[in-house]
Amino acid sequence: MNVYHITFAPAVKLAYVYFWGCNFGCKGCIRREELGDIHLNQHVADSSGFLQLEEVVGILEDFKPKGVTFLGGEPTIDPEFPKLAKVLEKRLDTHNILLTNGYLFPPLEGVDEIQVSIKAITGTLHRDFTGKPNQEVLRNFRRLHRAGVALRAESIFIPHYIEVEEIEKIARFISAVDSNIPYRIDGYIPVAGNPWRRPTPEEVEGAVEVARKYLHHVTYLKGDEGLRYEVECIV
Questions:
Q1: What is the value of pTM for the model shown?
Q2: Phi-psi region at 49: left, alpha or beta (left = phi > 0; alpha = psi -120 to 50)
Q3: Window from 21-35, 37-51, 158-172, 176-190 with minimum mean pLDDT
Q4: CATH number of 3-233
Q5: Cis bond leading into 72, ω under 30°?
């Protein structure tokens, strides 16, 4: 399978499993700058040495995590991801969280919570940022809600690109599905020589204020937060 990196937070007993590869080509993806967990003090140079499914399970068995977050990259493009989620739930009784761009409808068995990254509602903007249309993302988001999944959403706020107006469109879309769906707004971290700057805390808070007109549970990362707990590199 395409797992290349695993980290663990001992204080909260949470593991993070990173998948290589993505079906989007997002201009602002943090993986263009850093392949590893950004909370580490070390750099992950490449994706050499993919792990097999039983290797991943065996590694996690040693750490006995309460929860596992699958991220990347995009976990849903790995054909073995559904089996991994089910095996971890059965053998380790973990609470499994999937972070996904929502372009593919994800497996539901073995997954307890799904967080969909909604890049943009405006079609031309979504295609410019990701290289792909957004119709499937929005359709799958609605399908996941109808399926009764514990569903969350998040977006990146980028000054002069994915701006307050676009965040408002995203919040309005989510509220039309269910205004109780939790939504997180992340301040953009400059990567890969892009022309966009990091937003100020006040700009992020302004976007949050707008989103809260439509949604009951809006959180945010301004970019100046300290680490809540230490993260260790396993692989």
A1: 0.95
A2: left
A3: 37-51
A4: 3.20.20.70
A5: no
